[in-house]
Amino acid sequence: MNAATTGTVTTKIAQFGQLRLDSGATLLQVDCAYETYGQLNADKSNAILVLHAFTGDAHAAGISEDGKPGWWDDMIGPGKAFDTNKYFLICTNVLGGCRGTTGPSSIHPETGQPYAMSFPVITIGDMVRLQKMLIDYLGIPKLLAVAGGSMGGMQALEWAAAYPEMVAGAIPIASTWRHSAQQIAFNEVGRQAIMADLDWADGNYYGKSRPARGLSVARMVGHITYMSDHSMRSKFGRRLREKDAVGFHFGVDFEVESYLRYRGGQFVDRFDANSYLYITKAMDYFDVTQGRGASLATVFENTDTRFLVMSFTSDWLYPTYQSLELVKALRSRNRDVAFVELTSNYGHDAFLVEIDEQCELIKGFLAGTMKGLR
C-alpha cells in the first residue's frame, strides 16, 4: 500500500437552480457537495468520478479540514489505484445525503424549515442526474471512468446506462444491477427500526431529540451484513467482554455485542435518520433495466463503455451471482467486460479494506481505457 496522500482537501458546494426527479417532483435550489483530487489535463480526458456507498460522502481521499482521512484514501492518491499524478478524481455526496448535498435535513427554500419527510422520494437515477449536472458544470465532456463499490457500483451502472456517450469505463465493485428480495428485506428492517423510535416523530425531529435508538439499531443490522461469518468469528468469536463468565442479564456480555453498540452509537453522530430512509429506498427501487427494455443485455447492447466488474468470495450481501448476471448480459452483446472474483474473508467490507489486488486490476483497466481514447 502506498502511504502517499493527496493532502488536506476542502469540500466544495456547487449550486443548481432546480432538479427534475423521476417521481415527477422538482427540487429547487439544489446543493451538491464534492471534492476533487489531482489535476484535470489540457484536453479534459483524465477525469474519473468516484461514487460512494450508502453511508459515504464526498470525502473520498486525503485529509479533511477536521483531520479525517477519506473513505477510499488507500485507493486514491499518488501511485495508488486511482493515481492522482495521472488522473483527476471527483467525488460527490449523493442527493438525499446529509453531508453537504441537498437532502431531508436541508432547509426547504419555500418554508425556511428542514424538508424532513416532505422531501420527495428519490432514485439512483436522480443521484446520477445531479452528478451529471456537476460534471457539466466542471466543463468535462467525457469521463474516463466511473467507479464505486456497493451503492457506488449501482451509480456507476446507471451512469453507463443513462449517459453511455460520456463514460469510457465503468468499474462496479461488490454491487448489483438491482436489489434482491433479501437486500430489500434488510433495508426494510432498518427503516422500521427508525420509524418505530418515538423520537422519530414522523421525521420532524430536527431541533429536538433525534431517533438515536432506532438509527443505532438500523446501523447494527446493516453492519452485520457488511461482515462475513469468518470475519466475525476471527474478530470476536464468543469472547466475553472483560468477564470470565456470562452475567445472566440483557446488558453486554459478548465482545460482538459491544462492537455493534459502539458502531451504532458512532453512526448516530454522523448520519441523519431521514437520509437513511430515503437512500435505502432509492437502493431498493434501483433496477437498471427499468424503462430501458426487457432485458439487462438490451440496456447495454449499443454502448462502447468498457467494464471491469469485481466481486468477493465472502460477500453474502452482494453475492457474486449478481455480478455474474451483469457480466453474462454484457458478454451476450459482445461488450468489452472483464470480471474478477477476488478471494477475501472480509465479506462486503472487502471493497474498502482488501485493496492490493483491486489496485492492480484498476491500474491496468484505467491505463487500457485511456489508451483507447487516444
Task: Evaluate the radius of gyration.
Answer: 21 Å
Q: Sheet with the most strands?
A: 8 strands, mixed
Strand share of the residues? 15-25%
CATH class categorisation of the largest domain: Alpha Beta
What class do helices, strands and sheet pairing give?
A: alpha/beta
Q: Judging by the overall fold, what is the CATH architecture of the largest domain?
A: 3-Layer(aba) Sandwich
What is the domain tally?
A: 2
Order of helices and strands: EEEEEEHEHEHHHHHHEHEHH
Low-confidence stretches: none
Helical residues, percent? 25-40%
Envelope shape: globular
Enumerate the strands of the largest sheet in spatial order, edge to edge or round the barrel: 1-2-6-3-7-8-9-10
Number of helices: 11
Distance between the termini: 30 Å
Describe the structure.
The chain is an alpha/beta fold. It has 2 domains: 12-179 and 287-373, Rossmann fold (3-Layer(aba) Sandwich), CATH 3.40.50; 183-280, Orthogonal Bundle (Rna Polymerase Sigma Factor, Chain: A). The protein has 11 helices and 10 strands. The chain has helices spanning 124-137, 151-162, 181-196, 212-226, 229-235, 255-268, 273-285, 296-299, 320-332, 350-353, 356-373; strands spanning 12-20, 26-37, 47-51, 76-77, 82-83, 88-92, 145-149, 169-173, 306-312, 337-342. An 8-stranded mixed β-sheet has the order 1-2-6-3-7-8-9-10, with helices on both faces. β1 and β2 form a beta hairpin. The protein is globular, with a radius of gyration of 21 Å. The model has no long low-confidence stretch (mean pLDDT 95).
